[in-house]
Amino acid sequence: MIFHYSEERVKVKIQLLRTFRFQKGGNVKRRTNPKMSPVLLVFLTGLLLFGCAKEEKVQPPAPIVEVTDVTQKDVPVYAEWVGTLDGLVNATIRAQVGGYLIKQNYKEGDFVKKDQVLFEIDPREYQAALDQAKAVLSQSVGGLDQAKAALSQSKGAVEQTKASLEKAKAEVSVQDARWTTAKANLTRVRPLAEQNAVSKKDLDDAVGMELSTRSSVEAAKAAVEAAQANIVAAEAQVVGAQANIAAAEAQILGSRAAVEKAQLNLAFTKVVSPVDGIAGIAKAQIGNLVGPGSAEELTTVSAIDPIKCFVSLSEQEYMRAQERRLKQVGKVSSLDLILSDGTTYPHKGEFGFADRQVDVRTGTIRVSITFPNPQNLLRPGMFSRVRAEMGVKKAAPVIPQQAVTEIQGKYLVAVVSPENKVSIKQVKVGERFGPLWVIEEGLAPGEKVVAEGAQKVRDGVVVSPKPFEPQAEAKPEAEKKPESEPAAQSKSKKR
Description:
Elements: H1 7-18, E1 21-24, E2 27-30, H2 37-56, E3 64-69, E4 71-93, E5 99-104, E6 111-112, E7 117-121, H3 124-194, H4 200-268, E8 270-272, E9 277-279, E10 289-290, E11 299-314, H5 315-327, E12 336-338, E13 350-354, E14 364-371, E15 383-400, E16 405-407, E17 410-416, E18 422-433, E19 436-441, E20 448-452, E21 464-467, H6 471-494
Parallel strand pairs: 3-21
Antiparallel strand pairs: 1-2, 3-20, 4-11, 4-15, 5-7, 5-10, 6-9, 7-8, 9-11, 11-14, 12-15, 13-14, 15-19, 16-17, 17-18, 17-20, 18-19
């Protein structure tokens, strides 16, 4: 047993001892009466026992704690999934032509607009190629003009040859008529010559005329055949000229395509953003040789308003979610995004789409949820939690969250009996609901639990309870505490 002696009792004991001293000549001499020693010993022992008994009866004051009743509320039941944010569009920016990087026109991490120039590649080689292609195009256009002129000339030759043919045919008719006349004259003169009715000279003239006109007819027919051959040759020249025109036109098309390709390559020296979004860190530096064969991209631009959040659902959760969606046709189901710091994102999300298949390795399916991101606060790659209301739990027992103490995975609550005696109970907790916590097992409605001051109590301790005031209401008292400190300090100084 440990005895506690106060300062006053020690002084009393010392005074009693001094009563047995005698003073002579100013010197104090201690004399002991042998007959009185046993009596004095008994007296002092009784005094000490009496003081100890009196000390044991002093009990410390009961700790003051704030208690609240276990109430019942209709609590919404939520389900949460870990999600990863990703851009609505993640455009990988690569160089489409080769060359040395000479300029970077954007600030990393800034918002860029569609068709904004991000990088520039040395354009001199591609400008020269464009000028060369334009020169070839001009030559092709000149060749087409020459082919068209040749075609016109060939067509003129055809018309001229046809006119010659018609003239030759007319000459054939004339000579044929003369031949016919000569033959008739010979036919008439020859019998007369046999009868010596005409001279031999007239017969010879008739024969000569017939032979002459026959030769003229044959010559005219030969001229017709020559004219026909000339027409065929002229028409062949026309066909050749037309083929030359077609070749020249094809060459022009090829030259124009080369010009367009050269223009595209020259335009590709200015690398632009294909979407509105946030531009990432540049992977290439000024002076680097870049091109389509580069292993690393120049940068990435992500469209993040709205932004996607991917979560993985089990097959059972996916089926339940689909059934819930079918029942809520026409209703907008909102989803909450819990950020890594525990705050709830102010904008609600909506279901985007589900992947085409379930991952056979994990048995989960990826689901996309879109959230508005007008301030570009959310960025791809951030981890978060998506919370969805799955139903309402009726008359669920709830207590303040600060009334629950977690120790090595166990949740403990200090329950106060009607006699103000504390008993520590282990409970099974459920969902959190604002500042409250649903208790699945371990408490009954109407029981009183310690909400503030649980660290002061232990099992079996009697407490002095007072009503629990929520933190918002207790804030003014907290503000008054600094004012009481100077008064406490002044008291200590007086002591």
